Amino acid sequence: MFDSNFTVSNSAVVTDPSSVLALAGRLGPQSKIVDDESAWRAPPADSTIDALSARVVATRWRSLDHRTLEVKADTPTHSHLVAIVLRNENVRLSLCGRTVHDGTVVAGMLQITEPSVSASCVFRGPYDVLHLHVPNRLIAEFSRDVSDAEPSGLQSAAQMSQDPVAERLGRALLASEEDGKPFGQLYADCISTAIVARLLGSSCRVPSGARPRVAELARWRLRHVTEYVEANLGEPVNLADLAAAAGLTRMHFAAQFRAATGLPPHEYLLRRRIERAQEMLTGDAASLVEIALTVGFQTQSHFTSVFKRFVGQPPRAWRQSHGGKR
Q1: 164 pLDDT higher than 90
Q2: Domain around 83
Q3: What band does 18 get if pLDDT is binned at 50, 70 and 90?
Q4: For the chain, how many structural domains are there in total?
Q5: 39 and 160 fall within a common domain
Q6: Are 281 and 254 contacting, i.e. CB atoms less than 8 angstroms apart?
Q7: Exposed (0-12), middle (13-18) or buried (19+): which is 209, by Cβ within 10 Å?
Q8: How does strand 89-95 pair with strand 161-162?
Q9: Count of CB atoms within 10 A of residue 251's CB?
Q10: What is the mean pLDDT of the chain?
Q11: CA 187: distance to chain centroid?
């Protein structure tokens, strides 16, 4: 689990403008900042990621399809892959035949896959994941800048972790694509650099033992909660309802749910409501008021403010940019 209070303050890679500009100068023009993947974890066909690369390439794997999909991929020998989850989804992820996660993942969770690792994943419904293809050479350079010690690199973890800061940086990276402003590529490269530097710095920190570790919510309890949420997105739902679905008291449930997902229960509920609203905005001609009520908001204004907080755009503008019917 990464420390969300960690900041990189001494890395020349992040703070030295000349270093960033020099890096940008080696990049060359690119038509898109974040390409949609033609296959799971596949970099764009026109990108060059090899042993001499020194640039992060970002791709996006997403779909609103509710069918189950199974995919497989191997990371190249010369790069790592960082996956940042952008929406709540249900997956079974395995590395080299060993299950890393099976069940609900929430936005902000991330996973690092080392070079030459065989990965497979089963997506049970809609998904949206940002993938960063990080060359080994770049990791070595950043590690030496952050620490005088021999760089340890980024390592695959036994389970997925939660990093709200990395999620916010990832969404800022996507915003650079949507804005289409001048210097968008340079802006995106700076953000990619910050994400890699943060993960490297976090891997060097020693976890504090000052506070006792809270046990994660058991998988079967978490499944009961997520199923309850899905069945009641349009109804008033409070903490007591979710705790009852898990078979726990409110106090024990809230702490264990956050330990398992990285999110407070209410935040998880809001995210699922907004994700359901996104599905309706792209495939339904209903009005914004109708959609707001359907996903459990009492007023359109509250729906709009929460939607903008999570997505970065008001629902009307988001619908227009994604080809909605209304």
Answers
A1: no
A2: 12-204
A3: very low
A4: 3
A5: yes
A6: no
A7: exposed
A8: unpaired
A9: 10
A10: 80
A11: 19
